[in-house]
Prior knowledge:
Number of domains: 2
Strand order of the largest sheet: 2-1-3-4
CATH architecture of the largest domain: Up-down Bundle
Number of strands: 4
Shape: globular
Number of helices: 8
Order of helices and strands: EHEHEEHHHHHH
Strand content: 5-15%
CATH topology of the largest domain: Glutathione S-transferase Yfyf (Class Pi), Chain A, domain 2
CATH class of the largest domain: Mainly Alpha
Distance between the termini: 51 Å
Amino acid sequence: MAPVLYTMDVGYPTRGLKLVIRNANINVEFRPVDMLNGEHLSPEFLEMNPAHTIPFMKEGDFIINESKAIAQYLIETRAPESALLGRGFAKKRAKVNQMLYFDGTLTSKLTALYVPVLRQGATTVEEEPKKALLETFGILDLYIRKGYWVAGEFLSIADLFLLATIETCVQLGVNLDPYPNVKDWYTRCHKLPGFEENQEGAKQFAEWVKSKLSEELTWPC
């Protein structure tokens, strides 16, 4: 029986996890959750997931949240031959984990940018969060120059979670031209299963953020 994955497609954690599922060809039942109307705060959901975060997964009596933990579990149990984790080589897996953690750095910069708008009533985006996010793009550009994919010469789950995050930034107006290695990597990602699905979710998220702003979102050169 396929595990059940509770999702919200505008969120990059869900989209990153979906990219992993598409690229590892894993069978999962998707159940969208209406977070905007508080479905994730219902007694039924809090019983399953007290952290009330999305995505989370239920497989029989086993329940787990955190998108990257879910991704690793699904690959290990449902696609053990997949190379997305850097299978069989400790150093490869360490590089994958390094870039997964780096995605956490990137998402923290992105979160600092949009949370004041979506949760605190801000109608403009401050310049400092923009600069901090773009500085992180500069670091990523240096990482990618050392390999075809972010952890080296093989596609990994780090690429897929970073793609979900970076697509969100692109839809918010970040220009990739100053980051040629990131731009080339992003172009390669266009051919991956689930790319268009991820892009559509990112567009919806960006439109949501922009709808709250009193002026056009612009970025430092």
